[in-house]
Amino acid sequence: MSRFEIKAKDGMARLGRFTTKHGTVQTPLIMPVIHPGKSEITPQNLVSDLGFQMVITNSYIIRSQEKFKDIALEKGVHGLLDFQGPIMTDSGTFQMYYHNLPSEEIDPLDIIEFQRQIGSDVGTILDVFSDPNVKREQVKSDVRLSYERAKNSVHHKGDMLLAGTIQGGVYPELREKSAMNMAQLDFDVYPIGGVVPLMERYRYADVVRAVLAAKKHLPPDRPVHLFGCGHPMLFAQAALVGCDFFDSASYAKFADSGRMLLPTGTVHLDNLTELPCGCPVCSNTTADELKGLKKEKKALQLMKHNLYVTASEIRQVRQAIRDGKLMELAAIRARGHPELLEAFNVMLENSDQFKKLDPVGNTSSILYTGPETSRFPIFARFHQQILSSYPYSSPKTLILVPDLGSNPFSDMMPNLITALRTRNPSDVVLGFVTPIGVVPWELEHVHPAQQCVFPPSLDLTTRANTISRTTDFIQALNPDKVQWVSRNIPLDNIVQTLQEVFHIEILAGVAKAIESIEGYPEGRVDGGRRKLGAVFSFQWRMKPEFLQKSDIELKVSRKTGKIRYIQKDEDILFTLVPTTGLLTPTYKGGRILMTEGISDRYMVAVNEDAAPFVADGKSALAKFITRAHPDLLAGEEVLIVDRETALLATGRTLLSGPEMLAFSRGVAVIPRHSRE
Ligand code: GUN
Ligand code: ZN
Predict the structure, then answer these.
(1) Ligand nearest to the CA of 255
(2) Is 153 in the pocket of ligand 1 (CB under 6 A)?
(3) 669 Rama sector, left if φ>0, alpha if ψ -120 to 50, beta otherwise
């Protein structure tokens, strides 16, 4: 059973809790590497003064030196380090690789046994480290040997948690193979190993490839550790592709050579006149004073600085996950090094893997950081979802209005919208052309349509994406006629490129567009119902026939004029949430979704133990989930049902369908409204 639970998600990142015998820690987590012999800063101080939660030390070093070994065997590793918090131990794999030790040096089972004897909270198997320079055949045999050892070791873990390292060098298919095999064994943590030399050579793209390959097959309910990743500039990117644990010897190594870690990269003290940081060390001294210190004292001060910066960046990563802002943070961090930008782009190329885990229903703003922004999976998904769900296809006229997405589109042209609201969608459809694609008027308030902020002049990638998404939309909608409302903004000029493919009539300004719309007869059309039809289709892929019934009322906010509720006989059925532009059903609304034939993708079933609690308004815990659709995403509005598919409650998923089935701890669906 896993000790891991998820509290929030963003991208492939997880804000989680991991429970050990010596306490529960919050993830993403960074463990400073402690050398048992020399700790100028004690583990206790790391926790109490610097905000770390857990440390990692090396059982091979402890075992190979009599003075450490005797104390560790007598008082445990917690006694040796004089620390009562959670301690992970490594196995000696890296030492064997680094010092080229013969394989007889350590027995793989002895080292497991030793880690258990000294009371490690999380031990590590003796995996085989493949150097990035060795041939594929060698890596393949290293992977095989690591797996053989893993199979033997896992039976000896006893009540110690055990980490089973994924190897496979720079070969994604070997990483996949390694992960597939290791996933069959009951490890509590899955580290990605063999990446230290890659990180030392700035080969971050290879690191991201290795992580993504492994993540395809690792059980979602186990934390993933990126072995040897201690530079804060990498945390956001690594967390974003799903790494939960990090360890850092860098803080000491870099300090020894006069280097200062920063979230934006590394600087050498010798090159500084001013200290570029606000940590207690940098705030209380000057560059010259630091430079003037004796070697050991200087290293200690730099080490403290490095630790402050490391701890602060991991806190920033956790906050970004809570805020749905990790993608943006990683994009900003990617400016720290061109190879980090390359790694970011590798991740974007794998957006299919990413989109399955990235939660929906986010409310955060997304600020442009560069050409990569329009390629963010959230926008690609929004665009695809509009193409596949927008219900009003084949109109006589499609009117396109260029807009950058940052201003409430229709507020800019109230008269146009007034005219549109009373026309039939089979006559005229209005779409706002933005860098994230064409946003139909009906969906303009759905996140992220108006939460993304692009600069007025588009870079070439963003421009190309805008053109290709607009092309997709026109093709999917298949109108008889396309009109473009010229607004004298830089986005206007993409119309020339579109005109190479489509016949597009240019309208000189909004007044002309109103004329065009008024050319169609007023119908008995309700703009609000038209809007909701598109939202239901977008959100649950369904056509809500019930909306046409005469006893269904739309309640509009007096202040904003926007729809707030769908009601029947004074009962609220659905709330339209202003921040997401999406609907949340009440219990009665949930009943309607069922009678309207909602797809079982949006139903989550719990077992009979949990059913009464869920019906009473309690969270649906992952361990009670018996059915969840493989395509269900985190953040979706769903129905919680019992084994007989009777509705217990409505709620919002915290986990994706596959995650719900995998996890044995934590919440799967947060309830909105329940039966009782
Ligand atoms: N420390 C840094 N890299 C590795 C690795 O690949 N395996 C183990 N066990 N420890 C490491
Ligand atoms: Zn500092």
Answers:
(1) 2
(2) no
(3) beta
